[in-house]
Design goal:
By secondary structure, the protein is an alpha/beta fold. The protein contains seven helices and 13 strands. An eight-stranded mixed beta sheet has the order 5-6-4-3-7-8-10-9, with helices on both faces. Strands 11-12-13 form a three-stranded antiparallel beta sheet, with no helix packed on it. Helix 4 links the parallel strand 5 and strand 6. Helix 3 packs parallel to helix 4 and helix 5 crosses helix 6.
Length: 281
Amino acid sequence: MILDMHEAVPWHQSASGLWLHGEESPPPRPQALDLFAGAGGFSLGMEDGGLDVVAAAEWDRHAAATYLLNLGRPDVVVVADSEAKAERLRAISGTNEARHGPGSCRWFWARDIHGLTGDIVREAVGEIAVLFGSPPCQGMSRARGKVRNDDPRNDMTFEFARLVEELLPAVFVMENVPQLLTIRGGALYAAFEERLAAAGYTVCANVVDACDYGVPQHRTRAIVTGSLGERPLAMPMPTHWPRIRRPNGTSSYIRDERVPGPGGGRGDNGAARAPQMKLGI
């Protein structure tokens, strides 16, 4: 039997428009850094969105252990405020057998973020395209009774800004409670935005409700985005809206099946979605 290699090996078109013979290598994913990473929910979403979250920073040892269990590589480099803490975190990294393959995090800082600099990050993993994170919200949240303007954790927002200034990623995304925009009479957010605008970023803030994107609960959050240059980042359109308010205070949503999904407005099988409205409860 004569094997026709031209049939066995596919053709693909390169970025320059040339047709080449052989398997196409997937383009590299943009490198990202997660600050105030917690247990890793933000990183997981960014990974699912196509980023390579190569590094993260989280001081709390319990949150750090959960992060590395699920999202760390087995050969992760851990820098902690004690060698014993670093050893425990290294031992657990990437050991969740329920996950399909290890995560992409290969550097993890489990120490005070004041000691983390842009030069340290760059030396460890190279250039960062996307920086994201969720600075502490305890002083801003009303969940514990009232907003505390003098809580020192509120100023961790400026540590996020400092690392954006030092790393100059193409894009940053910060998530927090809506009071981020109003605490101290709006002065904290105004100072944050002014610093990053001076660094060359177009900064936008939006308050969104997670239920408008399919999460079965009301959870409002401030989403602050920045792009290096004059072109702002656009927030994705809600996928579950508009909501119908009932007299008893509950609500449901109308989902428009015409809202584009991952397939560009088509279903998972590539078929065009029917232009119909569905009521979700």
